[in-house]
Amino acid sequence: MDNTPTLYHIVSIILDRLRELYDCNAYNYDFVHGQKTAYVECLEIIQLYDKSSPPMLPFDIEEKFPI
Hints:
mainly alpha
């Protein structure tokens, strides 16, 4: 069973949420920082196990989304 389309969809959602978080001026810094950290960690796990060619995340996640 090929789960690639589902994984691409999940990655797309996480990237959208991260962009929203980096663009907003939130009043609750600790909560937003925790969300960013969780999303970045999820992307790092996906990147670690991504065997697709080309890779789903062909960039350094920490560089693009610094925490």
